[in-house]
Amino acid sequence: MTGPSYRSAGVNLDAATQARDLFKPHVRSTFGPQVLGDVGLFAGLFQLQGYKEPVLAASTDSVGTKLLLGQQVGRLDTLGHDIVNHCVNDVLTTGARPLFFLDYIAVEHLVPEQAEQLVKGISEACVQAGCALLGGETAQLPGIYSKDAFDLAGFLVGVAERDAILDPSSIKEGDALVALPSSGLHTNGYSLVRSVFGLDDDPSPLHEHPPELDCTLGDALLEPHRPYWPLLEHVLPMLKAMAHITGGGLADNLARVMPDGLRGSIDNTSWEVPAIYRLIQEKGSISDDEMASVFNMGVGMVLVCPQDRVAQVRSLLPEAWLLGGVTTSHS
After folding, report:
1. pLDDT for 246 beyond 80
2. 328 burial class (0-12, 13-18, 19+ CB within 10 angstroms)?
């Protein structure tokens, strides 16, 4: 008599081995001389070099329900960019450069080629950010995830010299807010988007080309979360703080870096809200306040710097614009 097997219970070890073989060239493409060892060991090793008083910075996150749109459109590699770049940007707000990233892919059942697309995107984003994909985990969890469902999360570690860490407590009244544009919704607001367009019941709108956009709705919504490290590496010494505009929008994320008694005063006429947000708002009859609290509205990162640094910062960042300034909370 033959009893149940691991495969009959929903876990395919052969698929896991095949997936690891597919991952290897992508992962190795991110390795530099600081990475010791190879793909497939139980832990990754990273040799920290060149710092006098290093401080590590770390962040973890997930892609959220944007994953569902990637599945519906059949594009998974961009989701790998999303998870890396979200973490890179969070760590960047401390002034730290990215060192290494670890991913976690959890699936109902493993399709090696689909997992490879995720890892390919993760590896491409790591190369762009100059960090190593040091390790990860691909877990098959039948019974926890519904059929064909999966999740993607990650963890990033960066480093900065202690005396180069950005210090939000140094922000003063009169400092400037300089904005950098987002590349789209990044990784926030997708549950509301799915509801507005009824995508859970009918994903066909993702393949339509609304007249307001220069691409399909799916392409606009799957535009990857952009990384700001390559842009800001040489600007960091001029800054006091940064706010990564994620869930909660401009107001909530700016408040996270403002000292007590101060607030960020935003000039809402200083930029044109991209068409994708106007389309979402009109389709869903969403209030201005709700839109501003859910989406980045086209602002991906806000830099806080002294007024006398604004011209220099903007000269190094042609996309940037003056978003507003720091005022007292009662003004």
Report:
1. yes
2. exposed
